[in-house]
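Issue: ligand-bound run for glutamic acid - logging full I/O for the record.

Environment: standard queue, default settings, no custom constraints.

Inputs:
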Amino acid sequence: MSATIDTAAPPRDRNVVTRFAPSPTGFLHLGGARTALFNLLFARAHGGKFLLRIEDTDRARSTQPAIDAILSGMTWLGLDWDGDAVFQATRAERHAEVAHQMLNSGHAYRCYLTPDELAAMRAAAEAAKKPLRIRSPWRDRTDWPDDKPYVVRLKAPTEGATTIPDLVQGDVTVQNVEIDDLVLLRSDGTPVYMLAVVVDDHDMGVTHVIRGDDHLNNAFRQLPIYRAMGWPEPAYAHIPLIHGSDGAKLSKRHGAVGIEAYRDELGILPEAMGNYLLRLGWGHGDDEIIDRDQAVEWFDLAGVGKSPSRFDLKKLENLNGHYIRAADDARLTGLVAEKFGFEDAARRDLLTQAMPSLKARAANLNELAAGSAFLFATRPLQIDEAAAPLLQDGASALLTRLHAALDAVHNWDTETLEDAVRRVAEDAGVKLGQVAQPLRVALTGRKTSPGIFDVLVLLGRDESLARIADHAV
Ligand code: GLU
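Outputs:
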């Protein structure tokens, strides 16, 4: 009944298979999304497969809305997994079957320690100020009673050390005496999470386990299961967590941690989010703008840093501004129209027409929507608080002159309009800006807008003249 565990790692010549294995107990958070992205890129870079497993064994905490949020967040980010998602809870029987195999092969044993005996061990460890390491007297016994409750424990190695050649952390070694015999099956026969992870990773053919470094300790408990089963071991890559700008572990108080808030509330484009998450903890020289195809070509685990990265919303918005400028006008129109909740073709056309100049000055979709609101505003326009002073002093007199000059314009195009506005400035003996600023505020209610001649063209003659007249004397 005693068995030795083969500690030599089998050769790794299999095709790359990675997986993302979220627990559906909340939304898809930034760290999870980044883990998924690294797994996807690594698989794609090696022409391998990227799988998705929903770790829903904690029935009390797993919810359908959380599953939906994870799937929709991944879809939004283009983290397309291969095949169908595996739901871990559906595989409980298989997990238990593997525990029984280990029991039969002598790599696991029935442990009849009672709650009282365990409590006494805990108390003794506390009194000795030592960490609790359960050493079960049942480990080497085989006189198993059938009428008493027991758990199934793994017979983990007690001597020597285990070294994991982590692809991010480097060699990490733990003395085996530090690791107690993992419970595989509870006394009701149900498998524990740690076993489920290993069995699923094995059955799914996972070759590389890439995940947050909060799971590094788990790897030392999971490896002995592979060895006990004689299964090929995966390579591990434990990536440092994401911290907030103050260096503390990222949490709600740093702002949104759920991916959907960046999409729905902060107006971030998925390609910007993906690029940002990629750069958060991985680098390729000084390159900042890296699209997905380029990322697949360049990604390697050697480029993942060992220390936690800091989340920086400004950087994300800078990238987002870049991707907004690069995005297709019709697509942006759709996204902004969605924010406004309108569908009619006329307003969409106007938005599309305005988009080239609107998108030049927006860091997110909210700014894009706010910047385009003037197109659909009704008179009298609401004037931004910050813009209101620009309508004071001599502004109405200038707007009166402008109204007369523009009323006389027949070809309502940017060139003719520019000539007319310049002439008004010259006649009034002021700089163009002194005319353009009140004109901008009268037309848009804001201090910033697309080029003022574009605004005149977009609004059209009648609406422009009416808005100017609202502020003329
Ligand atoms: N389900 C775990 C989590 O959401 C991940 C487990 C793993 O990657 O091995 O943190």
